[in-house]
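User: Let's play a game. I give you a shape written as tokens, and you guess the letters that built it. Ready? Here's round one.
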């Protein structure tokens, strides 16, 4: 594991219960993507789902490489939600975390393409072990 990126991320402890609720009530696209990310299936990386960071909860998070993945669906379609998403993302990015965003329908219809984007991102942002 690349320990240089591994750190504790600040979070609001009050969000732990909400994160648990979200994990227990995942959308279909979240379940489908989680099945591809869990247990180190994605290039051996340890992903967490519905991870509290600061005052927010991200869909998926890999602390080793400081990567957050969000699936944008119906609740993200209105203008206020989009503004909130951008503001939340900007604040979390200040912790040197980078985001990948996917559309809910895209995850359901093109999982292979989504996984390829994630794999490429990991390859491009993980130091080689020479």
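Assistant: Ready! My guess for every position:
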């Amino acid at each position: 594991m690349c320990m240089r990126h591994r750190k504790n991320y600040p979070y609001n402890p009050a969000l732990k219960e909400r994160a648990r609720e979200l994990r227990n009530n995942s959308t279909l696209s979240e379940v489908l993507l989680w099945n591809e990310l869990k247990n180190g299936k994605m290039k051996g990386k340890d992903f967490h789902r519905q991870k509290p960071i600061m005052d927010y909860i991200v869909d998926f998070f890999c602390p080793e490489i400081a990567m957050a993945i969000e699936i944008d669906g119906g609740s993200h379609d209105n203008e206020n939600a989009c503004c909130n998403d951008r503001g939340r993302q900007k604040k979390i990015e200040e912790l040197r975390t980078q985001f990948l965003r996917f559309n809910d329908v895209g995850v359901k219809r093109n999982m292979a393409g989504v996984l390829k984007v994630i794999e490429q991102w990991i390859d491009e942002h993980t130091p080689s072990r020479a």
